[in-house]
Design goal:
This protein has helices at 17-25, 45-52, 68-77, 97-107, 147-150, 167-172, 183-194, 228-234, 239-258, 262-270, 279-286, 289-304; strands at residues 4-10, 32-38, 57-61, 83-86, 92-93, 113-121, 127-128, 142-144, 162-165, 197-208. With 313 residues, it is of the alpha/beta class. Strands 1, 2, 3, 4, 5, 6, 7, 8, 9 and 10 form a ten-stranded mixed sheet that branches. Helix 2 (45-52) links the parallel strand 2 and strand 3 (57-61). Helix 8 (228-234) runs antiparallel to helix 9 and helix 9 (239-258) runs antiparallel to helix 10 (262-270). It is globular. The chain starts with a strand and ends in a 9-residue tail after the last helix.
């Protein structure tokens, strides 16, 4: 039985999947199985996978398109390892990723969640570091004392630099398949409320921004997001969770505003305690749509120049 099951959901990533799989095969730590869940790709993704002829690869086919959460759940349910490492089909691991996770497991036996740092890769080739909240970070690799405080900027780990002990899913359930936008947020809340996270500042993943069919670059119209109110009601005295929930409400509210879904925007903003946002975030939340749209264009222009500006700090 392998130590790691590498779960790769696949949907229309023909230009990325070969490099993704190769990054797994290049791992210095070799005790793993690969599980690819093809969610009814309509491009040549499946043909690319078959041509690679990887010996320890388990390919599972969905009979109908079910979405990212269901694909991850299918991989989890068909895994045989003690630890599940997730890798999206348009991302790549650095060669030491699994070895880094293995060291975290050995050094932090009380942890059940494991994550590493990552770098964002843009279409023009720019590789940009992630701005993180350094509060509650260990001096060296180790346990994160409060995930929700560290999550008040960009995520400290991305979906592809995250590993979960399989028993976690027995305790808190799988990914919520009814959530169709930001499903990682919901699982991260449940997981980090109940289990400890060990983290490495080592860059373990190249996280692709703006790729084919990337769900977070699509419209929110018709999508279901995390029920933030549910967690707020369940944990009314959890102060750092409230901060995190309001930050995520802010992020989603900005999406709704830019899409001119003012009904959803107003509903979310009414639930935010504005004291939990920075002045910059409050300004952007209530600034006129025309100004916010213009600022977003400037942000995109700066990204093309390799300069990243964000309100997530």
């Amino acid at each position: 039985m392998p130590l790691f099951s590498v779960v790769i959901p696949l949907y229309n990533k023909q230009d990325y999947i070969a490099a993704c799989i190769q990054s797994v095969m290049n791992q210095s730590f070799r005790d793993f199985e690969i599980i690819i869940v093809n969610d009814c790709s309509t491009d040549n993704s499946l043909q690319v996978v078959n041509k690679l002829n990887i010996p320890n690869l388990k390919l599972i086919q969905h009979e109908q398109n079910k979405g990212l959460s269901c694909s991850r759940n299918t991989g989890i349910q068909n895994s045989s390892a003690e630890y599940i490492a997730f890798l999206d089909a348009d991302d790549c691991w650095t060669p030491l990723f699994l070895e880094t996770i293995f060291e975290l497991i050995k050094c932090n036996p009380q942890a059940s969640l494991f994550g590493t740092n990552y770098v964002e890769v843009y279409p023009n080739g720019n590789r940009l570091a992630v701005k993180k909240n350094l509060k509650n970070f260990p001096e060296n690799d180790g346990l994160i004392t409060d995930f929700f405080i560290t999550g008040l900027q960009q995520p400290i780990y991305c979906p592809s630099s995250f590993c979960v002990k399989k028993t976690v899913f027995d305790a808190i359930g799988l990914y919520n398949e009814t959530i169709t936008f930001g499903e990682d947020i919901d699982f991260n809340i449940r997981a980090n409320l109940n289990f400890q996270l060990a983290y490495s500042k080592t860059i373990g993943c190249e996280y692709t921004m703006y790729s084919q069919n990337q769900i977070t670059q699509t419209s929110l119209k018709g999508k279901k997001i995390t029920d933030f109110n549910f967690y707020e009601k369940q944990y009314p005295n959890h102060k750092s969770l409230k901060l995190y929930l309001d930050f995520q409400r802010y992020v989603m509210a900005k999406h709704y505003k830019l899409e001119q879904d003012f009904s959803s925007f107003n509903q979310l903003t009414q639930e935010i305690n504005l004291k939990n946002l920075t002045l910059k975030q409050q300004f952007l939340l209530f600034a006129p749509l025309q100004l916010v749209t213009y600022l977003k264009k400037i942000k995109v222009y700066l990204l093309e120049k390799g300069i990243k500006v964000t309100s997530y700090n």
